[in-house]
Structures are given as structure tokens and as C-alpha cells.
Amino acid sequence: MASIDKPPLGTSTVKWRFPEIHPEGRKYALIAGAIALASLFIWDFITWPLVFLTVGVAAFFRDPVRVTPQEEGLIVSPADGLVTMIERVPVPPELAGPQALGNAPLLRVSVFMSVFDVHINRTPITGTVRHVIYISGKFMNADFDKASEENERQHVLVEDRHGLRVGFTQIAGLVARRIVSFVKAGDMVVAGQRIGLIRFGSRVDVFLPEGYGCTVALGQRAIAGETILAKKGAPAATGISQ
């Protein structure tokens, strides 16, 4: 039997690679590329700007591989972006009640995604999707606090095997015009799994259960599926901008 060569102890087999383009965005990249190609025969002076636009569209829909922590009692970030708000607020009506997050105010962590961030959203915990509630609305700047009540948004509630429920809200922004969901009520998901995307700039709010300490600070950048937003029993995090 032929022997199998193994890498020497301590040798890493992890290599950098270009992120793939999510299938949801491939058609847009192809359309932009086709227009850029056609411009060569019509208005060649705009070809290069259109080429840059094509690259930008492809980059917007990039879908990098993420490594999600597997420790119990963790809530990971559902979005890439900047932590812009950490405050205790009333639970949205769609996520309130005994079958959801209850009626008491909860700590909300808001992650703002610019057009330069990855826009694939991921589930913060492993469990069963209990609710997916879409609400049409306005398209004001997602960084405004009132965007959580007036913008187009989608609420998702996930419950783990111990009965812990975590709710989060995808909020469309000034440029974002569509929230795309990859899951539905009843689906089983694992922490860090892709659950949807928001096109072209937006925000995700996560409502932390009681007993979970926020482990990120205002101004910190979060990475979907990797950054730990909260941990059971952990003290609140503080940070210094530098």
C-alpha cells in the first residue's frame, strides 16, 4: 500500500485565496462586465470606469470563508462592519412576547456595513430558526437610530437546543434596496452559517439575552461569523480608539 505523505509537524496547510463571488451577485457582475465590454465598440472612453465598476460589484458580493468559534455560550457577529451602537432598548414588537424575546428591554449591538464591507450575513448561534419576519419601509441612512423602526427590515429569531433565543434584525440602508434571505422558519442552522445578505450598505442589530456580557466596544470592527459579540457571564468590554 502506498504511503501517504504528511506535512511536517508545525507546517501550516492554510493558504490565502481570493474570496468567491456569492451566486446572488454573479449575475450583477456579469451584467456590469458585459456593459463594459460593449462600451469598447460604442463609447470606449467610458470602458475603464465600467471595468472598475465591474470589479466593485464583484467585490461587493464577495463571500470569504470564515472560521467560527465553537465554544458554548458564545454569540458571534452576524455582520461585517463597525460597531456603532451598544445600548439597552425595547425589543421590537415583532420579536417581543413570551414565544420570542420577552417584553423587557435588552442590550442591542448594532453593526453598520458600508458599501466596502462583506454583505453576507450569518447566524450568531446554532439552533432552529423560529421566525423570519420581513417589513417594508423607508431607505434612510442605516446608521440613524430611527432606521430600526422606519427602514425596510427583516427580523430573525433563532433558538438553540437549551431554549436560548437570540434575535437579530437586518436593516436596509440609504443605498440598499433589497434584503435577501437564505433561510425560513423551521430551518436548522449552525453558528456562522450564511443566512442572507443586504445589498449596498446597511446595518444589523443583535439583541443580547440577559446574562450575556457584550465583548465588543464602540468603534470596533466586527467580522461576521468570527467576532464574538457576547459571552455568557462575561463582563462588559471597554476599548480605546487609537
From TrEMBL:
Pfam families: PS_Dcarbxylase (PF02666). It is an enzyme of class 4 (lyase). InterPro entries: PS_Dcarbxylase, PSD-A. Coiled coil: none annotated. The keyword Cell division does not apply. Binds 1 pyruvoyl group covalently per subunit. It comes from the Bacteria. The keyword Chloroplast does not apply. Pathway: Phospholipid metabolism; phosphatidylethanolamine biosynthesis; phosphatidylethanolamine from CDP-diacylglycerol: step 2/2. GO terms for biological process: phosphatidylethanolamine biosynthetic process. Keywords: Cell membrane, Decarboxylase, Lipid biosynthesis, Lipid metabolism, Lyase, Membrane, Phospholipid biosynthesis, Phospholipid metabolism, Pyruvate, Transmembrane, Transmembrane helix, Zymogen. Its cofactor is pyruvate. GO terms for molecular function: phosphatidylserine decarboxylase activity. The modification Pyruvic acid (Ser) is found at residue 202. The record marks 201-202 as: Cleavage (non-hydrolytic). The active site is at residue 202. It is found in: Cell membrane. The chain crosses the membrane at residues 28-61. GO terms for cellular component: plasma membrane. Its EC number is 4.1.1.65. It is a peripheral membrane protein. Heterodimer of a large membrane-associated beta subunit and a small pyruvoyl-containing alpha subunit. Catalyzes the formation of phosphatidylethanolamine (PtdEtn) from phosphatidylserine (PtdSer). This is Phosphatidylserine decarboxylase proenzyme. It comes from Sphingomonas hengshuiensis. The lineage of its organism: Bacteria, Pseudomonadati, Pseudomonadota, Alphaproteobacteria, Sphingomonadales. The gene is psd.
